[in-house]
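Hi all, posting the design record for the shared folder.

TITLE: backbone redesign
STEP: 1 of 1
STRUCTURE INPUT:
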């Protein structure tokens, strides 16, 4: 099904409906906005099929806390619509994020992955850093990293 998926840059505002419905249901819209959304170095990606936005991901310039001096991108706000889970939208988004990191000469990409999503990230080369931790009002997570140049 990946052939029918188009990944392209989108605006921060375009990410909000999926961020709200998938990542922060029944919460105020302010919870779904990231302070870095409007930064010049922030990139938002959308995965489309048939003109419908069905997946989102945001990349922020942010150092990995365990490696504060290294240039890195943080993946945040990644979500796919429930009806297309397991159909390649998340993979297409993550591959676009990895390509963007390589093209930008950023050696490290990291995220705080929901524990339920660890297997997905591992399939694309991410590794766990440290112990599981809780994100308040969201749930258990692991910090994960990948070196895009090796992907």
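Okay, here is what came back for every position:
SEQUENCE:
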């Amino acid at each position: 099904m990946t052939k029918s998926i188009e990944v392209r840059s989108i605006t921060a505002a375009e990410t909000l409906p999926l961020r709200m419905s998938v990542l922060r249901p029944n919460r105020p819209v302010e919870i779904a906005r990231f302070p870095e959304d409007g930064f010049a170095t922030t990139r938002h990606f959308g995965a489309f099929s048939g003109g419908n936005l069905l997946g989102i991901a945001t990349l922020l310039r942010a150092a990995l806390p365990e490696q504060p001096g290294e240039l890195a991108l943080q993946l945040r706000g990644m979500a796919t619509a429930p009806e297309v889970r397991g159909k390649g939208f998340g993979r297409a988004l993550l591959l676009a994020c990895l390509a963007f990191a390589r093209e930008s000469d950023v050696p490290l990409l990291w995220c705080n992955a929901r524990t339920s999503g660890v297997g997905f990230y591992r399939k694309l080369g991410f590794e766990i850093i440290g112990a599981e931790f809780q994100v308040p009002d969201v749930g258990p997570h692991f910090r994960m990293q990948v070196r895009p140049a090796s992907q």
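COMMENT: The first strand starts at residue 6 and ends at 10.
Let me know if anyone wants the other runs.
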